[in-house]
Amino acid sequence: MHTHTSAKKIHFKNLRANMARNFFGAFAVIAGIGFALIVQAITINGSSQLGAGSADTLMFESSTLFTGVTHQFPSITIGKQGVGGVTFFNGTIVNSTVKDDGSDNPVTFGDNIRVDGRIFRGAKQGPETDGVNPILVDDNFETSGNTRMKGTLTVNGASTLTGDVTIGGNETISKNATIEGSAIVRGNQTIVGTLTVGEAALTAATLANTDVVETITADWVNTANPWSASEIADVTRTVQLLLTSFYNVDATNSGAIVPTSASTQPAFIVSTEGNVFLRWTNADTDPAGIAFIVPNDYTSGGTVKITTQVASGTTGDNDILGKIWKVSDNQSASTKTFTNLTGGTNFDSGITGGNIKVVSLTLPDTLTLAAGDHVSFSIERSSGSDSIDVHSIALEYTAKQ
């Protein structure tokens, strides 16, 4: 005769009372849920003691306490679909098994992991000093969200940034860096190694709002993308108009200026120290002039700087007058006239007699120059009661690099 035994559930609603009444029964219950309790090398099968078969389920509906040192479970399930469970570990999770070759077997998590607290390795929360006990990631690392670091980022290998990079603080790169996307640095940037930027990224638009302070110690060579004139700042340049090349340009007394002059004519004077200068006495009114070509690097502006000196008895009523006549290539010279420059009236007002003063004569808005123009410049003492000495004359303008 064949007897069929069906699986059954055995409930323990008051396990502690049962264990108190039957000490040996308590050991049988404990062993029946899968623990191996070893007492003097004796193994007790709790399931058979309670009359449970291998397909039966033992259910505990009250709190259960196991006080042994080690409990072994082939498998354990906590919670069920729709109802979660909580596992309390006051200690360390360790996989004590090894591979066939004796190497370590890791603890394996076979599903997604959600951590509601913080992850740290040391004995206390937060990083330890001197980099002791850091978290070690022994594989490639990828994040799908934003990554924010409050400490220092140290990269010992190569770094490749394929997207936009925004750095809000200072950045120090001690190795080579390759940036394939856009990079915005809001702090200071120090590069000890080599910075490689694609040529397409260095355009006038990308450099328009960039302030660069750099010392170039070797030749700058960029034949593929040379600097254009608009990308290089203009500079102020000065050209000396040689004083001894000036000529008396008065219509009546025109000719070379000599050390001894007749009435109304300026004269070249050599001081006892050997300085050469051009002097107008209070009776001299003839103009002195020079011709020159506007330099090829000229872009704008034009100021004639005259170094003057007035005798010790200055009255503040001395005037000098500068004029420019200019003609451009392929223009008629016969239709051109002189234009007065601005400045020079009462130029000696407020200065101590005998002191040097630089007087600036500027081009009026009606007069413009261009590179290559032919210019005649003249200067004269227009009024005053003192002698006027001129030590040097120069043209100052804005030049392209």
From TrEMBL:
<dbReference type="InterPro" id="IPR011004">
    <property type="entry name" value="Trimer_LpxA-like_sf"/>
</dbReference>
<keyword id="KW-1133">Transmembrane helix</keyword>
<feature type="transmembrane region" description="Helical">
    <location>
        <begin position="21"/>
        <end position="42"/>
    </location>
</feature>
<protein>
    <submittedName>
        <fullName>Uncharacterized protein</fullName>
    </submittedName>
</protein>
<keyword id="KW-0812">Transmembrane</keyword>
<keyword id="KW-0472">Membrane</keyword>
